[in-house]
Amino acid sequence: xxxxxxxxxxxxxxxxxxxxxxxxxxxxxxxxxxxxxxxxxxxxxxxxxxxxxxxxxxxxxxxxxxxxxxxxxxxxxxxxxxxxxxxxxxxxxxxxxxxxxxxxxxxxxxxxxxxxxxxxxxxxxxxxxxxxxxxxxxxxxxxxxxxxxxxxxxxxxxxxxxxxxxxxxxxxxxxxxxxxxxxxxxxxxxxxxxxxxxxxxxxxxxxxxxxxxxxxxxxxxxxxxxxxxxxxxxxxxxxxxxxxxxxxxxxxxxxxxxxxxxxxxxxxxxxxxxxxxxxxxxxxxxxxxx
Length: 290
Fold this sequence. Notes:
elongated, alpha/beta, ten-stranded mixed sheet
């Protein structure tokens, strides 16, 4: 409790100093008044709220502030950041002191201009096991490599299709991916055709041989039929450790649902030659377990 009160007192002093500076700047630079007010409103939230939260959702600009990094980052275990650069470099300046972080959700924005990674000292993140990066297009694979290196226990990824397609061309990342990633969830946008998806999965399954749980999520109005399931199933035997596979929001015809999907797969694939399996189709979600 005493340490919390000490933090509040320090933050109040910093807030007072900042407000005084803003007041002087507004007088000397009236044209920039709105920018100063916006910045101050964001800082007031950090300076005056005495929080110790393990779960936070923050705008990238707010999270990069030194007050958050110095006073609160070390306490965060699950962090969602929105409007950060697709280069991922933004997150390094934020999580460099988040040594307890376990889950990181990144909502990227292609319009954000990243800062330089050169000036950021990166420590290990031993508790980080899960990263989500659904929004945005492909990311800078060099920075993703750095993330894999500083988070040695990262095994769970939930990412967009472009993210996966980008890493397939990086041999070093593919090797890390092969050894480390066991849980993978990929979001498929409507702009990607089925043939491209199947082609990438055929390559991915030869790389991600340690996968235990593999799921695809089709975005609304994605055009895919039950034949897509068969196209993908033939590559699953490459993942020797696989326990479950699924496709979210895929439409299977009522005729097939009313019959026996398990038998349909047996008759139209060689999956049973790999090992026995169970299937389920509920709420437009196809699931398969080995």
